[in-house]
């Protein structure tokens, strides 16, 4: 009798298994994908492998990304082509060919229910896209025109972010020939992460092609009127120069840690100076990687060499600013460049603490709070202050005249949070979200210049360009710290708002800068948006603006 009950019970379990598994599948969130805000769909749903790799059907690659795809059943090989990039992935093989060079994969081609599935991040990045994973929403954002933003544009929930009718610029200065706008700094950021501006993916391992591409980029920028470049030399805990601390960047060869056969930074410095242009070495301070995978990282990468320093926040790996040894290693990395190259400046962007995501540093707070700072927020700000001050001291001890500056998020604090803040309603601020106490850096003279990223229009009421320029001008006045304005050339023609459907938004902003002697120049993000994409003839407009004022 007991035996029969056991058999009946087993049969019931077996019969219920399909229902259980079906329910589990129904409960699994569907992964959604978008490219520059446009939803991408395939004939089957994406899924995540046990090694945390997102797999998508070939239809996403061919129809969504516009790449050519070919499947060879005999060899189980997928070939993906776009422009000059050719990728070959083989089912079951843990390497791929990128323009003939072998690259290690976490996961290669898989065949599921008769569908050919490929790893989205690998394919997307090799095609020049940036891939951002939102774990909570199970959503993947692909970007084709800019590095993934550290923060999204500020939004005020109770009102639209863009007025129905764009407000006129305030004020719009005359553009007659001979009007003087003698700003000293006319800079452009050159992004190397994801091979955005330089070097191209197709130049991997090709020394002469990389040099020729950089020469061409400088020549185009100079012809427009730019006199300085800010080149990303440490994009993801790696380097574009020989380092004893961090590995070679994968943007040079396709493989992190692989020697490119020359010193790119040495070449870039020489090329810039030959053209009479300044070159500033741009470092992402606390970003370790652009995703959470460590499989393809070199053994000397900080995430592998010092995993105890690493925090996974929002699907990216960060170096914990709360650990003194970690801060010092970043300083040591910068000082390699300061001591070894004739650069004109050291430049940091806004990668301090990440905004809008949880950051697991409770243990560091307990272990390294030697000053017994009562709140974690103030302890975090103290960590960044310590880093900024010490780096500046070490730079100027070696090269007193070297320019040292930082490009923080454009809103320090909203006036609602601090009566001395800007007349803005940003959902993210440098002080409260990234723990970047820029006011202290300026008042203490720890930096030589500040270049706030004011990436919004003259009619964006939540964070208006003119109001923010006004605020930063007052902040630097009589401080001895120079003010350059970081400007969003990347938004021209890509942002759907009416005010960005013309290059005149940038020109009007430049003219607004000219109201103030304190604004000593501008830096455009980013180079290829001007030299390659050139929306609405932006390069020509900038040429007229920069060169009409040479009197």
UniProtKB/TrEMBL annotation:
<dbReference type="InterPro" id="IPR012854">
    <property type="entry name" value="Cu_amine_oxidase-like_N"/>
</dbReference>
<feature type="domain" description="Copper amine oxidase-like N-terminal">
    <location>
        <begin position="35"/>
        <end position="141"/>
    </location>
</feature>
<dbReference type="Pfam" id="PF02638">
    <property type="entry name" value="GHL10"/>
</dbReference>
<keyword id="KW-0732">Signal</keyword>
<dbReference type="InterPro" id="IPR052177">
    <property type="entry name" value="Divisome_Glycosyl_Hydrolase"/>
</dbReference>
<dbReference type="InterPro" id="IPR036582">
    <property type="entry name" value="Mao_N_sf"/>
</dbReference>
<dbReference type="InterPro" id="IPR003790">
    <property type="entry name" value="GHL10"/>
</dbReference>
<dbReference type="InterPro" id="IPR017853">
    <property type="entry name" value="GH"/>
</dbReference>
<dbReference type="Pfam" id="PF07833">
    <property type="entry name" value="Cu_amine_oxidN1"/>
</dbReference>
<feature type="domain" description="Glycosyl hydrolase-like 10">
    <location>
        <begin position="185"/>
        <end position="500"/>
    </location>
</feature>
<protein>
    <recommendedName>
        <fullName>Glycosyl hydrolase-like 10 domain-containing protein</fullName>
    </recommendedName>
</protein>
<feature type="signal peptide">
    <location>
        <begin position="1"/>
        <end position="26"/>
    </location>
</feature>
């Amino acid at each position: 009798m007991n035996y029969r009950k056991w058999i009946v019970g087993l049969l019931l379990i077996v019969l219920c298994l399909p229902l259980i598994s079906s329910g589990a599948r129904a409960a699994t969130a569907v992964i959604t994908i978008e490219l520059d805000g446009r939803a991408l769909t395939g004939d089957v749903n994406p899924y995540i492998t046990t090694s945390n790799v997102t797999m998508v059907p070939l239809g996403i690659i061919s129809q969504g990304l516009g790449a050519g795809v070919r499947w060879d059943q005999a060899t189980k090989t997928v070939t993906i082509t776009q422009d000059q990039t050719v990728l070959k992935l083989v089912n079951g093989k843990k390497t791929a060919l990128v323009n003939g060079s072998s690259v290690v994969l976490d996961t290669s081609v898989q065949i599921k229910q008769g569908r050919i599935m490929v790893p989205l991040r690998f394919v997307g990045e090799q095609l020049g896209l940036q891939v951002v994973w939102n774990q909570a929403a199970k959503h993947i954002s692909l970007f084709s025109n800019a590095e993934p933003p550290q923060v999204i544009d500020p939004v005020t929930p109770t009102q639209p972010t863009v007025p129905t009718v764009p407000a006129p610029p305030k004020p719009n200065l005359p553009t007659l020939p001979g009007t003087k706008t003698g700003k000293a700094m006319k800079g452009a950021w050159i992004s190397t992460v994801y091979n955005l501006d330089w070097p191209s993916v197709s130049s991997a391992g090709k020394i002469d092609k990389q040099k020729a591409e950089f020469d061409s980029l400088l020549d185009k920028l100079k012809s427009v009127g730019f006199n300085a470049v800010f080149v990303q030399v440490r994009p993801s805990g790696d380097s574009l120069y020989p380092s004893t601390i961090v590995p070679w960047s994968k943007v040079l060869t396709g493989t992190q840690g692989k020697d490119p056969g020359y010193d790119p930074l040495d070449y870039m410095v020489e090329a810039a100076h030959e053209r009479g242009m300044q070159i500033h070495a741009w470092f992402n301070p606390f970003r370790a990687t652009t995703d959470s995978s460590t499989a393809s990282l070199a053994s000397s990468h900080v995430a592998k060499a010092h995993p105890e320093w690493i925090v996974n926040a929002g699907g990216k790996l960060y170096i914990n600013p709360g650990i003194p040894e970690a801060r010092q290693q970043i300083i040591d990395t910068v000082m390699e460049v300061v001591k070894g190259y004739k650069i004109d400046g050291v430049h940091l962007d806004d990668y301090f603490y990440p905004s809008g995501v949880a950051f697991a540093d409770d243990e560091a707070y307990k272990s390294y709070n030697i000053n017994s700072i009562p709140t974690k927020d103030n302890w975090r700000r103290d960590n960044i202050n310590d880093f900024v001050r010490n780096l500046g001291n070490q730079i100027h001890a070696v090269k007193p005249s070297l320019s040292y500056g930082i490009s923080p998020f454009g809103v320090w604090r909203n006036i609602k949070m601090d009566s001395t803040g800007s007349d803005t309603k940003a959902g993210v601020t440098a002080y409260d979200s990234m723990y970047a106490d820029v006011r202290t850096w300026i008042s203490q003279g720890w930096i030589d210049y500040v270049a706030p990223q004011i990436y919004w229009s003259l009619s964006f009421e939540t964070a208006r360009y003119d109001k923010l320029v006004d605020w930063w001008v007052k902040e630097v006045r009589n401080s001895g710290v120079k003010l350059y304005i970081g400007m969003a050339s990347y938004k021209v023609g890509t942002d759907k708002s009416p005010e960005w459907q013309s290059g005149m938004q940038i020109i009007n902003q430049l003219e607004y800068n000219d109201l103030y002697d304190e604004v000593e120049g501008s830096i455009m993000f980013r180079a290829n948006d001007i030299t390659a994409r050139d929306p609405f003839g932006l390069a020509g407009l900038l040429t007229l603006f920069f060169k009409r004022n040479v009197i």
